[in-house]
Amino acid sequence: MIDWDRIVEEDGPAVWRICWRLLCNRADAEEAFQEAFIAAVELSRRETLATPRAILQHLATARSIDKLRSRQRRRKRHEPVDHERLNEEASADVTPPQNAEAGELSDALLKALATLPGKQAECFTLHAIEGWAYQEIADRLGLSIDHVGVLIHRARGKLKKSLAHYGHDGHNSAVEPPAAGATSGSSPSGK
C-alpha cells in the first residue's frame, strides 16, 4: 500500500515546481498539481507503481502541457481574459524567488511549447526543463532512446522556429542542446 501522505510531503514540492514552471499561474498550477496526484492514485489502484515520484513528475508535466494547450485554444477563440484577475492570482502568495523561477520561461516559449505534438512536448519538457536523461524518458514513456532523441531534436527545431516568429533570435538556453554528456544526467529523484 502506498503512503500517499509521505509521497505528498516528500515529492509534492518537486511536482509543484514542474506545474509552476510550466504554467506560471497559481490557479492553473494548483489544478495541474491536484490532477497529477489524482491520476497517480487512480493508476495505483490498477497497477503497482514502482517509481511514484517519476510517475507524478510525468503526470504533472502532461497535465501542465494540457493546460498550456487549453490556454492557447482560448486565446485563438478570442475569449475575453480577465487580466486583472489573472495578475492577482499570479501575484497572490508569490515570493520573490517563486517570481524569479516563473520568469525562467518566457511567454513566447510557453506558447511555442503548447503548440508541439504531445510526445515532443513531453520529452522536451522532461529533458530540457526537468533534467531527465534520455534513458529515463525512454523507460518512463516506453520509447527507444533513439526515438526520444529524435522527438527532442524535432521539438527543439520547432521551438526555435516558433521563437523566431515571436521576435527571438532562436538562441534561448531552454531550447539549446544541453552540454555534452547530459543524456546520462541525474535521475528524476535526484540520485
TrEMBL record:
Record keyword ATP-binding present: no
SUPFAM superfamilies (UniProt xref): Sigma2 domain of RNA polymerase sigma factors (SSF88946), Sigma3 and sigma4 domains of RNA polymerase sigma factors (SSF88659)
Residue stretches making up the RNA polymerase sigma-70 region domain: 8-74
Domain of life, per lineage: Bacteria
Record region (Disordered): 69-100, 165-191
Biased composition (Low complexity): 177-191
GO biological process per UniProt: DNA-templated transcription initiation
Family membership: Belongs to the sigma-70 factor family. ECF subfamily.
Name the UniProt record assigns to this protein: RNA polymerase sigma factor
Organism: Humisphaera borealis
